[in-house]
Amino acid sequence: MPLTRSAPFLTLGWMQSVATATVGTFLGWIGIGRMGGAMSSRLLAAGLDVAVYNRTQEKALPLAEKGARVVGTAAELGSCDIVFITVASSQDLLEVLVGEDGLLTAAAAPSIVVDCSTVSQGASAEARELASARAVAFLAAPVSGNPKVARAGRLTMAVSGPRDAFVVALPYLRVVACDATYVGEGDVARLVKLCHNLLLGAVIRSLVEVTVLAEKGGVRRHDFLSFLNDSVLGSMFTAYKTPALVNLDFAPTFTTRLLYKDFDLGLDAGRLLETPMPLAALVHDLLRAGIDEGIGDRDFAAMIQLVARSAGLELQSEDVEVDDGLSSAPG
Q: Considering the entire predicted model, what is its pTM?
């Protein structure tokens, strides 16, 4: 049974409040993985009208308990006003748009598609062209953060595409994330996200190396990281990774394999734009080594185990309750 809009689509002003802007808009979400589930839950918690699709429908059922309408195909979301997408790969993005029962194959099409996936600029450009053929505005909106950050309302977004579509979508972006930065036309937001993740890889590698060095010299990981987090070098990232590093909990929020994929894309961008990236290339090789040593599907913070092994140090969980810096976050 096709979905119908609950009210006419609203053209929203830049400065309208979220409470006013969200009235009557019908939202869709494609991709209910760890990130998609956490992000779409924020829209539902705000009382918004959301329909969701996931290739494995069972993963979407918990959202039904929160008020979402679960549909059987992406095409059924064609009658939504704005559709968000969070999928794992470039091919997945194109598949949910124009594959069998894809979003853009339906008779009706949304006004705006907001893609929050991390995909290549080439795939993003192709998706934009496909959307344009259906008179659909396409926003690339990759995010910074993991599912726990998403649940805390501390995600940030870089967004590119038509500015007028960004203005319309902004109140909803600010429900999902604490803020969204418009970075330009086309697909430049993809490059911004790749640059972000290249820095992420360099930071985590440096962080685990100095943490192992401190421990080998007799300093507990918890004490060293507590000092670091309170220093000028501390950040939301170092704080929310501290529990994993202290207690060796590497349940994946973002896997080593996915970070390696982003380094592939980032180094491709470096070659295309003739920008030397020797540090990124080194971290890329270290990530590959981590995958070969069995941490590909673990959280990328598990690199600390490889560094410790190289240093002849056997890590043990310190079994310490650690503040991740997110408990007092807004939202």
A: 0.86
